[in-house]
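Possible regression after last week's pipeline update?

I re-ran a chain I had predicted before the update to compare outputs. Posting the input and the new output here so someone can diff against the archived version. Not blocking, just want to make sure nothing changed silently.
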Amino acid sequence: MNKVITVEKAMLPRIAEIQKRVYAHFLDNEPWTDETALAFIEYNYKLQPDLFFVLLHEENIAGYTFGRIKPWADGNHLICEELLIDFAYQGKGLSKHLGLKLLEEAVSKYNITTVEATTFDSYDGNPMKMYKKLGFKKQRYFLIEAKAQKLLKTLKGYQ
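New output (post-update):
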């Protein structure tokens, strides 16, 4: 039996374990540790705990999702920060339960107009394949990043 519930603070360490394990598998250039994964999960829980959910499968945490609300010109946007299913439960269509709960709560509580998400393509095309099936489209925005020390050096060179 599957059930989606709002996260309880005591669940955060278990969620962090899942996050670390799954990200380590797909993103080998991101050295997640127990501490960094827990800090990430706790940080996001504090931002908007009412939009942080877990999927329980026979009382085991099978996955989680969380998002936050961002006011925008056309109304509130839901920023879906994470939607992740643990390996043992992947490929069973369970992510739809989490996505539906997050969307329903955001519509009900915040009257959202748009859902935004950032994702990646892995070697097998997921999770982007899943998002495309749901109707998501790539936009003109890009995720950009720079290493802080290198950026500081570059900016100081412009003085």
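Follow-up from reviewer: compared with the archived run. The beta strands are 2-6, 52-57, 60-72, 75-85, 114-117. Marking as no regression found.
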